[in-house]
């Protein structure tokens, strides 16, 4: 059984624009699946549908065989700890009124009774926060700062620490590094790759950046105007059989 299964989903916004058309794919346990496509093709909409932030009009989204689409917040709650998100703008993932330590303990307080920790071992909240900060290579003394007292890269690392704090099986990464400078981008992506191995997680890695997707993922999907037009193992990226649109994207990176 696949960790996440997306079957024939369609999404039209109130404006009448059909943004997702017959999207089908699955993600396996411990897999990193890349999704590329130009701005406006529907990548973030797909992420929001998987996270239950946007309803879908047709189709099905299942996590380990259980349908998640269009469920109420109450029914989705047991699954939220398993599917986390790291989005493009690091500030949007953190409450500006909470200190780093409060942001880090918040998901754990919401889901604590449902989490059986496999990778963290601690005897106090303080120890748990220290382990999370260490995991994302941040100094422990950042725990008492507010988000506005952090750099963009540090904020994104706190967001990552928060996302992994519930030991999710899947993280949706929607352009997680694109607001950062080139050096910070590389180090955030390297950290994400290391954490995936260490914590046995799967990623749906959404990006404009073909080389980052190639670096991070085992399989790659290409989206054009709301449809998945190509899907392949990364070793087949330069194969002759690639969709003409994939070839066009590749040529932009050469
Ligand atoms: N809440 C919304 N209401 C109406 N239309 C929306 C909404 N969110 C996105 N759209 C439209 O849906 C289309 C797809 O947007 P989406 O953000 O999913 O694309 P994207 O591929 O993630 O783009 P980018 O790479 O620039 O983030 C766009 O035409 C956008 O204007």
Automatic annotation (TrEMBL):
Originating species: Peribacillus simplex
GO MF terms, alphabetically ordered: ATP binding; ATP hydrolysis activity
Alphabetical list of InterPro entries matching this protein: AAA+_ATPase, ABC_transp_ATP-bind, ABC_transporter-like_ATP-bd, ABC_transporter-like_CS, P-loop_NTPase
Pfam families: ABC_tran
SMART domains according to UniProt: AAA
Protein's GO biological process: transmembrane transport
Name of the protein described by the UniProt record: Dipeptide/oligopeptide/nickel ABC transporter ATP-binding protein
Residue ranges occupied by any ABC transporter domain in the UniProt entry: 4-250
Residue spans crossing the bilayer: none
Keywords: ATP-binding, Nucleotide-binding, Transport
């Amino acid at each position: 059984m696949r960790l996440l299964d997306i079957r024939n989903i369609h999404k039209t916004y109130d404006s009448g624009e059909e943004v997702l058309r017959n999207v089908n794919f699955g993600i396996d346990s411990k897999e990193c699946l890349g999704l590329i496509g130009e701005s406006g093709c529907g990548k973030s909409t797909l992420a929001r549908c998987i996270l239950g932030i946007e309803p879908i009009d047709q189709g099905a989204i299942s996590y380990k065989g259980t349908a998640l689409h269009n469920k109420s917040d109450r029914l989705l709650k047991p699954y939220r700890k398993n599917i986390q998100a790291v989005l493009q703008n690091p500030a949007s993932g953190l409450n500006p009124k909470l200190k780093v330590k409060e942001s880090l303990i918040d998901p754990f307080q919401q889901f604590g009774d449902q989490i059986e920790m496999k990778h963290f071992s601690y005897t106090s909240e303080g120890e748990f926060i220290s382990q999370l900060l260490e995991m994302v290579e941040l100094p422990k003394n950042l725990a008492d700062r507010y988000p506005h007292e952090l750099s963009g890269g540090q904020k994104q690392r706190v967001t990552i620490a928060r996302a992994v704090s519930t030991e999710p099986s899947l993280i949706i990464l929607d352009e997680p590094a694109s607001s950062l400078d080139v050096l910070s981008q590389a180090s955030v992506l390297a950290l994400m790759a290391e954490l995936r191995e260490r914590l046995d997680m799967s990623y749906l890695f959404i990006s404009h950046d073909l080389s980052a997707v190639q670096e991070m993922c085992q399989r790659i999907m290409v989206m054009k105007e709301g449809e998945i037009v190509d899907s392949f193992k990364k070793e087949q990226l330069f194969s002759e059989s690639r969709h003409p649109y994939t070839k066009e994207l590749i040529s932009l990176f050469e």
